[in-house]
Amino acid sequence: MLTSLTDLCFSPIQVTETKSLPKSMNETNHSRVTEFVLLGLSSSRELQSFLFLIFSLFYLAILLGNFLIILTVTSDSRLHTPMYFLLANLSFIDVCVASFATPKMIADSLVEHKTISFDACLAQIFFVHLFTGSEMVLLVSMAYDRYVAICKPLHYMTIMSRRVCVVLVLISWFVGFIHTTSQLAFTVNLPFCGPNKVDSFFCDLPLVTKLACTDTYVVSLLIVADSGFLSLSSFLLLVVSYTVILVTVRNRSSASMAKARSTLTAHITVVTLFFGPCIFIYVWPFSSYSVDKVLAVFYTIFTPILNPVIYTLRNKEVKAAMSKLKSRYLKPGQVSVVIRNALS
Fold it and tell me: Are 39 and 197 within 8 A, CB to CB?
């Protein structure tokens, strides 16, 4: 009798505990970290102070150089052509590429504990793939523009109309959006329940997925396949386009072809500088983290700062437009007058 009463009293409790245990385990396994720790480029305080100064100057140069190109193209009617329209959009994307992580990296170099919230980390992943994906497609559009200009010069203005240029720019942003949405879909539902140190200065997708509390082998393959497909397909299209253009230029020996060679050199240099690091990081995912950091700095900082230099140093039209812009807004003595009025 006593045994049956004891069984009757305690059996519900045992059933309740059995049901609640999986629920507790489920909550633990799917709990999310609230922030990530960015290890940055270096742990040395002296080196971080040096990096703060250097990257602050670089970022300022990126803003000034690229906005100067945008201002020059929009203000000079002689540059209202398809090539310069696409160039101005490239400068805008370069500013975006440099701005999604560089300001935070500069600010983090002044603090010891570098953290970023979970949502801000996802935002960085979203924007880096949006901007880089858009830039890849825009570079293909610029190659197509050069192909039409050199191989079909009589039909250039008909084919590369204003409407076509706008559509090409919109397509580049649309492809970038589709690419980054698919990349983010691989990450947003991953369980992050413990490790939260990202060995970089921003939330790079391959590094973040490695912190998930689950097997990410398949996810990593999908990420590499997605980024690899966009990078390699864009790069192959560019190689084919520029090969056809170079063959055409080689078979013609005129003054206009000499100018085309100069333009092509600038375009090919920009393509190499941009696609090299991207392909190395995402298509060859077995490189060391230190190499990845250098390459990430290269395509987020050095490429945006080099593009204005490459396109202006060898382009007489842009340099002439900049000189005209300077004479219009910075007349002799005008700067000193502005400074004097500001100090008075």
Answer: yes
pLDDT tens-digit map of 119-178: 999 999 999 999 999 999 999 999 999 899 888 888 999 999 999 999 999 999 999 999
Tokens of 255: 């003054």
Rounded CA separation 177/125 (Å): 12
Strands 115-117 and 197-198: unpaired
Tell me the C-alpha to C-alpha distance, in Å, between residue 8 and each of 3, 16, 20, 21, 31: 9, 14, 20, 21, 36
Query: What's the predicted TM-score (pTM) here?
Result: 0.81
133 touches 179 (CB < 8 A): yes
**Assigned token pair, 209:** 């997925």
Alpha-carbon span 256 to 288, nearest angstrom: 46
Cα angle at 89 between 88 and 93, to 5 degrees? 120
pLDDT value of position 290: 58
Cα–Cα nearest to 143, from 247, 74, 235? 235
Listed in sequence order, the DSSP H helices in the chain are 2-29, 45-75, 82-99, 102-108, 118-151, 156-159, 162-187, 205-209, 217-250, 255-282, 289-297, 303-313, 316-329, 334-343
Question: Which helix or strand (DSSP H or E) is residue 115 part of?
Answer: strand 115-117
Name the band, by pLDDT with cuts 50, 70 and 90, for residue 19: very low
Helix axes 162-187 and 82-99, enclosed angle (nearest 10): 20
